[in-house]
Amino acid sequence: MNELETLPNIGKVLAQKLNEVGIFTAADLQKTGSEKAFIKLSTIDNSACINMLYALEGAIQEIRWHQLSKERKSELLEFFHFCNSKN
Fold it and tell me: Candidates 3.30.360.10, 1.10.150.20, 3.40.50.300, 3.90.1150.10; correct CATH number of 3-85?
């Protein structure tokens, strides 16, 4: 099992995608941050969505993404819309 799969919200497929962009451990993900990791993932996955961004942040915080604060979800949603406006 990939170490990333032990984190909340990270399954086999997302862990493999994270590996493809150079993120191999929980420490790598924490150091990279959810926004930068999402940008990297977006370069290889056209289906990257807001739920993926929430999942990454939840994994960093070691909680299910549903438990993210409303404020953090709002920040991430704003970031997601900004990223999509660049396409």
Answer: 1.10.150.20
Query: Which tokens is 12 given?
Result: 């086999």
CA distance 85 to 9: 26
Cβ atoms of 9 and 64 within 8 Å: the answer is yes
Where do runs of H (alpha helix) occur along the chain? 12-20, 26-32, 34-42, 50-61, 70-85
User: Would you state the structure tokens that stand for residue 13, as one six-digit string?
Assistant: 């497929």
Q: Report DSSP state, residue 86.
A: T
Give the predicted TM-score (pTM) of the model: 0.94
Query: Measured over all CA atoms, what is the biggest interatomic distance in the chain, rounded to whole angstroms?
Result: 36
Q: 5-28: per-residue pLDDT in tens?
A: 999 999 999 999 999 999 999 999
